[in-house]
Amino acid sequence: MRMQPPALARSVFQPSPEERSDETLIDRLRSDPSTRVLEVRGDRARLRGDRLVWAAPEHVDDAAEPAEWAFLGRAGDGSARLIAARTVAPQPDEETDWASLRISGGDLVDEDAGAFVTAVALGRWFADFRFCPRCGSPARLRSAGWSRVCTGCGREQFPRTDPAVIVAVSDVRNERLLLGQNAAWAVDNRFSTFAGFVEAGESLETAIRREVAEEAGVVVDDLVYRGSQAWPYPRSLMLGFHAVANDASQARPDGEEIVAVRWFDREEIRASLAGAGPVILPGSASIARRLIADWCGDKG
Prior knowledge:
CATH superfamily of the largest domain: Nucleoside Triphosphate Pyrophosphohydrolase
Largest sheet: 6 strands, mixed
Number of helices: 6
């Protein structure tokens, strides 16, 4: 059965990449009254209910800290969507108006969920790659925010995405799900699936077997790909899988990153998804929650 798309993989934007080669695009669109702009600060944007707050270009204040601009694409009505990204955090009196992608991204309508994750990913790349990795010279934005060109050696670089695997591990009877508790979550009694970056030279399958063996002590087989979504913390593409542990009795935490592992039956998982179970599960924006719900046969 097909898995429901992860929360941040529901974009219905038209990226319109053929427009990015126009070096006048951003300036022209900022003068177009139909254009709307999403302001992002780190991983935060203004929200109103389940919608992002899109501003007219003239309402974006560049005076206090100039923003870096990019072209997101076209909305369903054909109007342009831009982002204006800054690194400065919202002021204390603005906190109620700004929400984090990590916390709120899963509650947005499809169009805004896709726009938010793309905006955060680009904004973080803007902040982290201002200089050429070859010669150290400043690198200016081009291609409507989708590349940088070194002002020294001319090298062009593009937004990076690092592949990471995330896996829901069941027992051989598919009656229980193995989850782990990260050292940082112990106070909250939070459990989740197992994840890690793909290392140099690895296949996805090798990365899954290595990560699960390292973190949870079990050998897994029967790997099945279930879906993916961007996760700009810092710049990952999370590739989601189900897998089966060959020997459930071998499960044990590594004692460093993972401080506890535990097998859960479907009743416990469903109760926890509803907020009434024995543990706290990942939030709605995470692909981990979708993999857990998928194992249960739950659409929520």
